[in-house]
Amino acid sequence: MRFADEDRPQISEMLEKLATASRQEPGCVSYVPHWVEDDPCTVLIYEQYRDRKSLEAHRATSHFKQYAVAGLYQLMRERSVENLTAVV
C-alpha cells in the first residue's frame, strides 16, 4: 500500500493497533507490517492465517473494519495484493 508522506505517523499508529489486535486472533499465524526501506511511503503487510476460514474471520473483526477499511483504505493511494501458497 502506498500513502502520502504526511500520513506516515497516522498510518504507523493504525498499523500498530491493527497488528496487535490481529495477532490475538486464534487463526492468525503471523501479522507483520513493514515500511519499505527504499520507499518510505510504501507499506507491506505479511500476514498468514491457518486457513481461509481464519482469513475470513479476520476480515469480519471490528479492528479490521476500524483500522483497515475505515482507516488505511481511506488514506492509501495505491494497493496491490499477492496471495502466496507455502511450499512446505
What fraction strand? 15-25%
> How many H/I helices?
3
* Principal-axis shape: globular
**Total beta-strand segments:** 2
Number of structurally distinct domains: 1
> How would a crystallographer describe the biggest sheet?
2 strands, antiparallel
- For the record, the CATH architecture stands as 2-Layer Sandwich
Secondary structure class reads alpha+beta
CATH fold label: Alpha-Beta Plaits
Rg = 13 Å
N→C terminal distance: 28 Å
Structural account:
With 88 residues, the protein is an alpha+beta fold. The chain has one domain (5-75): Alpha-Beta Plaits, CATH 3.30.70. It has helices at 8-22, 52-59, 62-75, and strands at residues 28-36, 39-49. The protein has a two-stranded antiparallel sheet. Strand 1 (28-36) and strand 2 form a beta hairpin. Helix 1 (8-22) runs antiparallel to helix 3 (62-75). The radius of gyration is 13 Å and the shape is globular. The model has no long low-confidence stretch (mean pLDDT 97).
